[in-house]
Amino acid sequence: MNDRPTAEELLLAVGRFLADEAVPGLDGHLKYQARVAANVVGIVARELETADAHMRGEWERLDALLGDTAPLPEGRAARREALLARNARLVERIRDGDGDAGAWREELLMHLKRTTADKLQVARGAAAEAGREKGKTTEPR
Fold it and tell me: How distant is the alpha carbon of residue 112 from its chain centre?
């Protein structure tokens, strides 16, 4: 384990610098590019911060949907590959009509809403949190 500052802290510091100091001092195309860079840095920082929890949650929801109790693989790359394979199986079940009605459909919809909310949390950060506080959210109800 590396000492502080963590990768997330470093990325957030760069993002703050870009947004708070660089962007106000720039004009035109460079200002736009600096804003884009600040957003990218924020997305990467949020993804690093939340990836393990989001992958674990998606894995557990897919366990229930697919009736599979395999353990979550170690390492992000292995987890990503295993989740892609599980999602391919989920897509096949949806194509076969399993999601057209019944309790499995309700469970599927809850999974899709939660997964989408997790992705929005990474992509939108503070904007997603502000929307959640105002009641505008993709959170499962």
Answer: 12
Q: List for the chain the helix, strand, coil content (%; round to 5).
A: 75, 0, 25
- Find the farthest-apart pair of alpha carbons in the chain and give their distance in angstroms, rounded: 57
- Report whether pLDDT(132) > 90: no
User: What crossing angle do the helices spanning 7-17 and 28-66 adopt, rounded to 10°?
Assistant: 150
CA distance readout (Å), 77 to 11, 23, 55, 133: 21, 34, 11, 33
Structure tokens at 93: 């079940």
Mean pLDDT lowest among 57-66, 99-108, 118-127? 118-127
Peptide bond into 5 cis (omega under 30): yes
Give the number of residues written for the chain. Answer: 141
Query: Which residues lie closer than 8 Å to 95 by C-beta, 6 or more apart?
Result: none
Residue at token pair 């989740």:
83
Domain ranges of the chain: 7-133
pTM above 0.90, yes or no: no
